[in-house]
């Protein structure tokens, strides 16, 4: 028996991927995608079928993971880089103070880029960070050459190599080509290689918290050729296009990485979809590689595992791409927990329909580790939803709905859902949408004018007004939603000064 087991505290493994849709799991019924290792985690663990990212882009989503807070509390309600991260209580910080050896490998997307956020050590690959590569006024110590560990590692093996060598834009969801170097040099493999090395060099006298944070399947869509081959000739499903989707808007003439919308040539879109699915299977196999190594080190059955994504990818749904928008492809994420040592008494193979969110990760992992949850945390521990003894029961104390939002210029929006219905309000135009997710999970019909839905719409509109009450933007006076108020990407209590 090793020293960690003697302490009686489990290791904690958080696995996050970037921009993976909720439906891209074969165990969830996807007709094409192959995810055998994630399927096994779900088959022997618990899968949450209604997991969401309330602010579905990289920066605010990670704020929810780090702090366990809603976007109203952590203050990042849109995407904005270069705003300092000064949170006092963080998930790795609390675990470190409790005696855990804490390590992040991969993407953090905080500012400054090498802010430890409570970790003892980080090995960083955030992908293409625009503010580090393009802003020449920033201090030299923040240049991407110096903040990115993967780039340094790659250049030791391939002199002069860079992340832009393939000519693919880091935010384009419509262009793809295969990885051009050895598979072991791919960023996905690098995260796992370094994570396995952490198992070697960790402090054996402490339990560990490891965050394996992958950049893929976020663009660039660059899977190794062997994985692209799996899908190039597959019968790929057509993206759903709702009766509300724009089809004649001038913005749709050609794809725009700025607006995230467009009519993309079918051949190009099909290649991008194949590459996206290939990246997911590549990730799955590499996650399996790490789990095998974890078992070889004798730690698999002493480790609690949580897998999720920071947000989704629209991938052509309704002629839309990327993330940030309030639709299922963007906001709905995979979420799996597993406890190989059966410490927590989970119902193996269960699927929970309760609405969970990224803010629930911090309290869940702290509780699993036996570490007190700070009062600043607003999320809830998910374990009671997954216990065998509670199978089939509805927890009345669990959240009844989730409020999501994203500041994005004219497309700024707010939404509320219970996983069965969704109401959306675009704050700059006043446009409303309502979807019955039980009978219309792909959001094909906007029921906002349907007579038999008006009572439910009024209910959700009131719920949203309650959520927005007191917000500094002035979105509601308590009796109505007020259109046209200037959206903020970061609330003033994060900046420390009021935004004008």
From TrEMBL:
For molecular function, the Gene Ontology terms on record are:
metal ion binding; sulfuric ester hydrolase activity
Q: Where is the Sulfatase N-terminal domain?
A: 10-371
GO CC, alphabetical: cytoplasm
**The keyword Glycosyltransferase is assigned to this record:** no
Q: Which domain of life is it from?
A: Bacteria
Question: Has UniProt tagged this entry with the keyword Transport?
Answer: no
- State the InterPro entries in the record: Alkaline_phosphatase_core_sf (IPR017850), Sulfatase_CS (IPR024607), Sulfatase_N (IPR000917)
Keywords, alphabetical:
Hydrolase, Metal-binding
- Cross-referenced PROSITE patterns: SULFATASE_2
State the SUPFAM superfamilies in the record. Answer: Alkaline phosphatase-like
Give the family this protein belongs to, as stated in its UniProt record: Belongs to the sulfatase family.
**What protein is this chain from?**
Arylsulfatase
């Amino acid at each position: 028996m090793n020293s960690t087991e003697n302490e009686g505290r489990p290791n904690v493994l958080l696995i996050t991927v970037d921009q993976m849709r909720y439906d891209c799991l074969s165990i969830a019924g996807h007709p094409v995608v192959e995810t055998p290792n994630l399927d096994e985690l779900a088959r022997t663990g618990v899968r949450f079928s209604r997991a969401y990212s309330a602010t579905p882009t990289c920066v605010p989503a990670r704020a929810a993971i780090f702090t366990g807070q809603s976007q109203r509390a952590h203050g990042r309600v849109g995407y904005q880089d270069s705003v300092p991260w000064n949170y006092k209580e963080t998930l790795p910080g609390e675990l470190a103070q409790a005696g855990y050896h804490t390590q992040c490998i991969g993407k953090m997307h905080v500012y400054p880029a090498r802010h430890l956020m409570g970790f003892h050590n980080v090995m960083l690959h955030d992908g293409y960070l625009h503010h580090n590569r393009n802003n020449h006024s920033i201090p030299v110590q923040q240049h991407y050459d110096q903040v990115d560990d993967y780039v340094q590692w790659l250049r030791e093996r391939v002199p002069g190599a860079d992340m832009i060598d393939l000519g693919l834009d880091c935010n384009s969801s419509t262009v793809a080509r295969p990885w051009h170097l050895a598979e072991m040099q791919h960023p996905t493999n690098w995260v796992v290689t370094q994570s396995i090395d952490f198992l070697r060099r960790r402090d054996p006298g402490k339990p560990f918290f490891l965050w394996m944070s992958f950049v893929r399947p976020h663009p660039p869509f660059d899977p190794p050729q062997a994985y692209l081959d799996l899908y190039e000739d597959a019968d790929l499903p057509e993206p759903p296009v709702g009766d509300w989707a724009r089809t004649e808007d001038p913005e749709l003439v050609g794809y725009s990485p700025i607006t995230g919308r467009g009519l993309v040539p079918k051949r190009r879109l099909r290649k991008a979809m194949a590459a996206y699915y290939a990246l997911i299977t590549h990730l799955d196999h590499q996650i399996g590689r790490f789990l095998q190594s974890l078992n070889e080190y004798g730690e698999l059955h002493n480790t609690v595992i949580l897998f999720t994504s920071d947000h989704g990818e629209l991938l052509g749904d309704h002629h839309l791409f990327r993330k940030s928008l309030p639709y299922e492809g963007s906001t709905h994420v995979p979420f799996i927990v597993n406890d190989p040592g059966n410490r927590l008494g989970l119902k193996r193979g269960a699927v929970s329909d309760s609405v969970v969110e990224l803010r629930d990760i911090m309290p869940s992992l702290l509780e699993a580790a036996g570490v007190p949850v700070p009062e600043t945390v607003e999320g809830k521990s998910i374990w009671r939803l997954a216990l065998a003894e509670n199978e089939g029961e509805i927890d009345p104390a669990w959240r009844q709905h989730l409020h999501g939002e994203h500041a994005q210029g004219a497309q700024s929006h707010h939404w509320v859902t219970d996983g069965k219905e969704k109401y959306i309000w675009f704050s700059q135009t006043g446009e409303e949408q309502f979807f019955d997710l039980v009978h219309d999970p792909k959001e094909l019909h906007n029921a906002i004018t349907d007579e038999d839905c008006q009572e439910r719409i009024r209910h959700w509109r009131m719920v949203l007004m309650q959520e927005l009450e007191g917000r500094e933007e002035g979105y509601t006076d308590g009796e109505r939603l007020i259109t046209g108020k200037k959206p903020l990407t970061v609330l003033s209590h994060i900046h420390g000064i009021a935004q004008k």
